[in-house]
Structure formats: C-alpha cells, structure tokens
Amino acid sequence: MTITTCENGDSQGDSRYLYVLLDFDGLGSFERSEQEDMLLSVLNAAVSNFTLFNKKDFHLDKDTESAFSWFQNGINLLKQDKNLFKGLFYIAIKDVDTSQSSVCW
C-alpha cells in the first residue's frame, strides 16, 4: 500500500479503505486559544481508531502537561457517549539523536 500525503490533509491509499489523517501540528501554538487546542485534540481522540502523540524527548514540560490537561477537560464533556473514544492512544518518544540513530542498527 502506498499513501501520498499533501499539506492540505488530502491522502490517497488503498481503494478498499478510507484513510483520513488529522494532523494537529502545533498544539499549544500562539495561533490558537487553549479552548481550540482542547477541542481539536478531543475531536481527534473521539473519532479516531488510532491517535499518535509525537514527542521529541522524554521529559514532560509545561506544554505537554497543558496538552494532556486540555485533553482531559475535553473528554469530560463527551465521556457519556459510548460510541466515542474507541481507538488506541500511543505516545511516540524520540529520545535518540538522529545523528546517532544508525549506531543502533
């Protein structure tokens, strides 16, 4: 299977399945309010089969704690709906410097 992605969110893939990729790059950005960040992260988790939280390092900074706080606040608004939040949640932590990644292989 080959998927081609574009910056505007379009994607092409296997014709048997519909893949919708939601990329909320920049959560915690000055361009959005805390409420907008909360709603985007909750929307993603509520309707997705798979949610990936990508983290560049292992420590939990203020921005990461804020993101999880927004997420929890939003879930409390929707948690009564049994059809939502059925997907998997993964955290990807990149803790190896890319210049040294070939050493591991």
TrEMBL record:
Top-level taxon of the source organism: Eukaryota
Name by which UniProt lists this protein: Uncharacterized protein
Species classification: Eukaryota, Viridiplantae, Streptophyta, Embryophyta, Tracheophyta
InterPro entries: P-loop_NTPase
